[in-house]
Design brief:
Leucine Aminopeptidase, subunit E, domain 1; 13 helices; 343 residues; alpha/beta; single chain; 2 domains; elongated; Serine Threonine Protein Phosphatase 5, Tetratricopeptide repeat
């Protein structure tokens, strides 16, 4: 993917300092001056001229940084070196304030990456999973500005975008958050596997939040084929029901993946209608371990639901996508501008 960002300053710095940084981390202590060059933080959080030159100036530049072969691969490698250390105390490796710089950098990249990214793993190991508050505040301000500029739709509140106006038949929303904790729907959709007996990602999170009774009921559902959907109670979840659907594994796009994914949304909505459910929340189906590209999945999801609502007017009051991570949320916002027709 081509980007408009000049990353040459970072690449030149890595050519000079990266091997030294990696060696010192592997030896267990930073002893020379390379922190700003290897672990950049968001603009406005540091005052030195070096920080200002080597800071990340936007969310999109941070994404471009990770997608650059040299910078992204080096960042993953040095994070792996941190994860291999025997200590969980960042002060054993970094003097102050370099320990905070590490936390700020990991917060930035974890916030634009998928759940359980290597950056979050570093935060888990050295900072008890906690992100840096100042960094999050800067990111939130930038996200707000980006959302207001990038989308033609109405922004209800931070990280929540309305795709249709509240006085229309059904409110469509995109929001960033944890689908197991939302309280404004009657049912959430689980991106399950064919066994319906729990797994990783959203599936595992839903089973953990619902409690063991969900697994007991799912054992009675006799599995689920790809593209189909089945319903269970929600148990300890805030919602009354869970609709389980099995998304397709991405195999390059030539094996009917888009139709199978569309079936997930159609069949989930049909199950909801059959059970008189009018408020439902979806995750981003198939874009985790199943590998479906997020941009392609978002277009299928939004266009399928939009068409279903045209075919079944006054069938729902609220349909929302609850998306984990800013990167996925932004891709869905961009897809909405292309897909949702308000005419």
């Amino acid at each position: 993917m081509e980007h408009q960002f000049d990353l040459s300053r970072f690449i030149k710095a890595h050519d000079i300092y990266y091997q030294t940084a990696l060696r010192e981390i592997e030896n267990g202590h930073k002893s020379s001056h390379w922190m700003w060059y290897i672990f950049p933080i968001f603009a406005g959080l540091g005052r030195s001229s070096t920080n200002k030159e080597y800071s990340i100036n936007s969310i999109e530049e941070a994404k471009a940084y990770l997608e650059n072969n040299t910078l992204g691969n080096n960042m993953v490698e040095i994070c792996n070196a941190l994860l291999r250390q025997n200590t969980n105390n960042p002060s054993d490796i970094f003097d102050k304030p370099d320990d905070w710089k590490l936390k700020s950098c990991m917060t930035l990249f974890a916030s634009i990456s998928e759940e359980h990214s290597i950056f979050q793993q570093v935060l888990d190991k050295y900072f008890e999973g906690k992100k840096d508050g100042k960094t999050l505040s800067r990111i939130d301000k930038k996200q707000t500005a980006d959302d207001n500029q990038a989308s033609n739709f109405k922004r209800l509140k931070k990280n929540t975008l309305a795709l249709s106006l509240p006085n229309e038949d059904c409110l469509l929303c995109l929001k960033m958050g944890d689908i197991t904790k939302i309280t404004d729907v009657d049912a959430i959709v689980n991106a399950a596997n064919q066994s319906l007996l729990g797994g990783g990602g959203v599936d595992g999170a839903i089973h953990r939040a619902a409690g063991p009774e969900l697994l007991q009921e799912c054992r009675l559902l006799n599995g689920c084929k790809t593209g189909e959907a089945k319903i269970s109670r929600g148990y300890n979840l805030p919602c009354q029901y869970v609709i389980h659907t099995v998304g397709p594994v991405w195999r390059g796009g030539n094996y009917g993946e888009s139709q199978l994914l569309a079936n997930c949304y159609r069949n989930s909505l049909q199950v909801a209608m059959d059970n008189h459910i009018r408020r439902i929340a979806f995750p981003s189906i198939s874009t985790g371990v199943y590998g479906y590209p997020v941009d392609k999945a978002a277009e299928v999801a939004l266009s399928t639901v939009n068409e279903y609502l045209k075919e079944n007017p006054d069938s729902f009051d609220l349909i929302e996508w609850v998306l984990f991570g800013y990167k996925t949320y932004r891709v869905y916002c961009e897809a909405a501008d292309k897909t949702i027709n308000h005419n």
